[in-house]
Amino acid sequence: MTEEQEGLLELGDFAKTSLFLLSKHLLKYKDVNMRTHGRLIEALESPTKRKLINMPRGTLKSSLACVAYPIYRLLNNPNERILIDSELYTNSRTFLREIKAHLESPLFRLLWGDFEGSLWNSDEITIKQRTKPYKEASISVGGIGTTKVGQHYTIIIGDDYSSPANTNSPENAQKVVDHYKYNTAILEPDGTYVIIGTRYSELDIIGHILDNEVSHHTE
Fold first, then answer.
1. Which end of the chain is more exposed for a tag (fewer CB within 10 A), N or C?
2. Which CATH class for the 3-210 domain?
3. Could you tell me which of 7, 8, 34, 9 has the C-alpha nearest to residue 19?
4. Calpha distance 20→16 (Å, rounded)
5. What is the largest CA-CA distance in the chain?
6. What phi, psi does 152 have (nearest 5°)?
7. How large is the C-alpha radius of gyration of the chain?
8. Where are the domains of the chain?
9. Percent helix, strand and coil across the chain, each rounded to 5?
């Protein structure tokens, strides 16, 4: 083994314990920095089971939450069952396509071996490192209007659920809320739900969560 390969293996060991190192040095998100993304990374790494993240567009929030974070979680627990969920099903598939590209890369094969398991397509993947026979894939994708009947996930990532198109009326906004409520029913009791997005309206999903699920204290 060359000195360069030994250095990469050492970096891989550190990256498993640091979402920042994984994102910046292995996934090559060069613009990730602790000043801009420190609180986002801290929230994703924290043991809290409900994470609500509101950031502007163009800040790499989806790359970190929907690509880096699922990889980070699977590296540390290959038995996770993750649903990447977006307003549009096609957006979720795009995130999975990028994840697959990383897992299939020579770098990841060097560090952690072959990931491609029995299920490996544009909608679902199961990694070879899994040790438990769950019916759910390691990563599945979804979108508003789709349902995952009979599935149960340890992690659900709701990315950019709200947009101008679905916050322009109470009825459209309610469809997003209903989708979110359905997903809470297919999340394992000790599972993690990450909501990440940008505010568009008081009617959006972030507003719903702030109004109905976040405790407000006055002094």
1. C
2. alpha beta
3. 34
4. 10
5. 61
6. -140, 130
7. 18
8. 3-210
9. 45, 20, 35
The amino acid that residue 35 corresponds to is R
Strands 116-120 and 139-143: unpaired
**How many CB atoms sit inside 10 A of residue 16's CB?**
17
**Hey, which residues does 186 pair with through a beta bridge?**
none
Rounded Cα distance, 30 and 158, in Å: 24
pLDDT tens readout for residues 97-145: 999 999 999 999 999 999 999 999 999 999 999 999 999 999 999 999 8
Res 95 pLDDT > 80: yes
Q: Which of 92, 113, 102 is nearest to 158 (CA)?
A: 92
How many whole angstroms from its chain centre is CA 37?
Answer: 15
- 189 phi and psi, to 5 degrees? -55, -35
Q: Which residue matches tokens 């209903």?
A: 178
Task: Please report, for residues 25, 49, 94, 174, 219, the alpha-carbon distance to residue 156 in angstroms, rounded to integers and kept in the order given.
Answer: 25, 10, 16, 19, 34
Partners of residue 159 on adjacent β-strands = 86, 196
Cβ proximity of 13 and 22 under 8 Å? no
